[in-house]
Amino acid sequence: MTNDPSPLSKLDELLAAIRAYGDPRRAANEWKQAYKLLQQTSLPPAGVTHAVGMRDVAKLAELIDQLRSPVAEPPPPDVPDSETCKRAMRAFRKRLAAIRLDDQSKISSRSPLSKGADRAVTNAIVPPTEWPEAVWKELARQGKLVHIGQGFYELPKE
């Protein structure tokens, strides 16, 4: 909707009508119409609600200007190269193997009464912190890891 001229021209008319009032807070109908039009845009809803709720004419004009010349989207974050992903994946597998070994060992801090065949196997871990979160997200996007939430990742089921 940002390039559609009719809502922009309607918003300009509403802004002029609101400014024509001695007290902009009395232009209730114009504010309602402006709010309905602004809700249909890609502008942040909190900013729209704030401008209309506070009857802020300057903020309304600023929002209309943002619709005329939208800000370019930020460039996507740097995607890690394949070599970095390979090294991170190797470190993930080593950490997972070490944690599983620790869980299965007799040296572990678990009770001796709890060991046995029915013990749960560790599948998800917090990945090594030597690599940024972007590496783990990229590996999850590639399907080499599965993000299960709260910063935990696991190997995909085969």
Distance between the termini: 45 Å
Radius of gyration: 28 Å
Total number of helical segments?
6
Count the domains: 2
* Major sheet details: 3 strands, antiparallel
Approximately what portion of the residues adopt beta-strand conformation? 5-15%
Query: Could you say which structural class the secondary elements and strand pairing correspond to?
Result: mainly alpha
Strands in their spatial order, largest beta sheet? 1-3-2
Quick one: overall form?
A: elongated
Low-confidence spans: none
Please count the beta strands (DSSP E, at least 2 residues each).
Answer: 3
Sketch the topology as an H/E string, one letter per element.
Answer: HHHHHEHEE
Q: Whole-number average pLDDT?
A: 84
Into which percent range does the helicity of residues fall?
Answer: 40-55%
Protein architecture, described:
This protein is mainly α. The protein has two domains: about 5-70; about 80-105 and about 120-155, no CATH class. The chain has helices at about 5-20, 30-40, 45-55, 55-70, 80-105, 135-140; strands at about 125, 145-150, 150-155. The chain has a three-stranded antiparallel beta sheet with strand order 1-3-2, with helices on one face. It is elongated and about 80 Å long. About 15% of the residues are buried.
Task: Please outline the helices and strands.
Blueprint: H1 5-20, H2 28-39, H3 45-53, H4 57-68, H5 82-104, E1 124-125, H6 133-142, E2 146-149, E3 152-154
Antiparallel strand pairs: 1-3, 2-3
Helix pairs in contact: 1-2, 1-4, 2-3, 3-4, 5-6
